[in-house]
Amino acid sequence: MRTASSRDFETAVGWAEREGWNPGLDDLAAFHATDPDGFLMGFEEGEPVSSISVVRYGADFGFLGFYIVRADRRGAGLGWATWRAGMARLSGRTVGLDGVVAQQANYMTSGFELAGRNIRYGGSLPSARIDAVEAGDRCAILPASPSDLNELTAFDSVHFPTPRPAFLESWVLPRPAATAEPPTRSSLIARRGGAIAGYGTIRRCVTGYKIGPLFAEDEAVARALFSTLTRGRTTGRPVYLDTPSDNPAAVALAERMGLTPVFETARMYRGPDPRLPIERIFGITSFELG
């Protein structure tokens, strides 16, 4: 096992794609910028055979993802070795993960406890359905900008176990385009009375688009953000939203937009549950980094 460069870890992103996880086209750049030493890979005779991301946030929290053994090397004990190396890097921290159904029992034997279920909703959005959504109650929807970072970090930290400014800078804020191609992601902030009332990011993925995070003070703000993020962008392509099942308003929003369940994970923690305000989380950020 060794720390993987961003280039090395592109192999793991390819494995995730083949597993059906549908990664974003430029997710890895934002992931790696958050904690460059938090991506590990196992090798046999110079060939990559396993991966795990164990990203540190602040002093007390970490998130585990990309736990994959190459399909042709499963059953050889590589997964356990990879797991131990990853968990060692997060020793002493509360650790979160979003576990696929097949692995949840294994995670429990390692001390993880269930905090809730996430359901990925997906489907195509008829433009009439998007345009019919009201713009929210006295809510201004504006593009996120670098000047918003401090305020956005404070708002985000209500919905995540710890502040994550480095991640947000790469994930949410626009970056100068290196080519004439349109940007692969866009982020919007909802303001009510001048203060942030919600924000969301939409990004291109291998298949369609994902929205995440989608954090909002209430359902009206979430609807306004969802509508504005998708309008004029998603025609003919599916859209995915990873909703906490314990937030009925989030589930109702996805269903109102005509989306249907396609995938399920469990949010699990080893260590104290941070008790996030689920009623304000309409879409989690990602299954890989929380």
TrEMBL record:
This chain belongs to the protein called GNAT family N-acetyltransferase
InterPro entries xrefs: Acyl/Acetyltrans_Enzymes (IPR052729), Acyl_CoA_acyltransferase (IPR016181), GNAT_dom (IPR000182), YitH/HolE_GNAT (IPR041496)
Q: Name one GO molecular function term.
A: acyltransferase activity, transferring groups other than amino-acyl groups
Q: Where is the N-acetyltransferase domain?
A: 1-136, 139-279
Q: Which Pfam families match?
A: Acetyltransf_1, Acetyltransf_18
